[in-house]
Design goal:
Strands 3-2-1-4-5 form a five-stranded mixed beta sheet. It has six helices and five strands. Helix content is 35%, strand content 27%.
Length: 167
Amino acid sequence: MENQRPNVSDNFEVTVYTDGAASGNPGPGGYGIILMCNGNQKELSGGFAHTTNNRMELMAVIVALEALKYDNCQVHIFTDSSYVVRAVEEGWLARWEYAAFKKKKNGDLWLRFLKIYRKHQVRFHWLKGHAGNPFNERCDRLAVAASRQPDLPEDKGYLQPVVGKLL
């Protein structure tokens, strides 16, 4: 298989910190990510001209999972987004998917999330935002800086919501 890890134990662990931000909510927004694995650290960020905080929180998790080079990683995601954590951990997402995301916001991103989430073993850890965790604080700075970049692309999923089902 294309994404199988050669000669790596099944305990390949990745720690991820994420945060999202939107000014005005809706307004310009961004996400910040720190990926950590085997002593290496990588930062990612991006932004959109017109979006919401919840979309950016979820986008951060999606982009982080999509950045992983191999399938079946054990991923620990630390986020201050109760929206993302509760949707997954409390079964909201399963119900939304079953109902094809009818009358639910961010269906386009949740579908994208499910596609990549199912390739890994993911565990969410909620942490209080702006409470002094240096990784969370750094992700917040990345997200805010990304939201302030010039010529940000439009968040087409926010502007034209898509409802569908997973293929």
